Amino acid sequence: MRPRVSVQDSALRNGNFSLRIDPVRSEDAGLYEARVAYNTGVQSCHVDLGVITVTLSPPSPVVENEPLLLSCNSSHWASLVETRWFHNGHLVPTSGTFCSSHGALSIPRPAMSDAGSWICQLRYSDNEIISATYNLKILGFDGPTNPVVYAAAGSAAD
Hints:
Oligomer: single chain
Strand order of the largest sheet: 5-7-11-10
Number of strands: 14
Strand content: over 45%
Number of helices: 1
Shape: elongated
């Protein structure tokens, strides 16, 4: 198993001191410092890593017509002003089929058409806008709502 955190040794000689974290987790949020000693001097760089997460409840797999909740959270320090959800690039109206509250989107009866790319966009009191994408997969029947099957008398219908 490869480590989640790494530095590319070969890049150090070229002045690239990048820290790679893959996959990023919520607990990775915070202040990072890099220090480089060269000759008699020391250079440092500070980076504040913010993390945004989109979680699904209940966890995958999502079954058609079973309620689900997509939650969006961020480590950003400012007050949350607005949450917007997009499905396959289109703003989701939060009425009727979808209900949004405190960064979460409730879908009481998900359909196969609800599968795809969901983007959570958070806007904070300092005007920072942060977004994350979740690819939702739904298990179900992707066909006519009330299919009709014909079978000859005396045969089997599968």
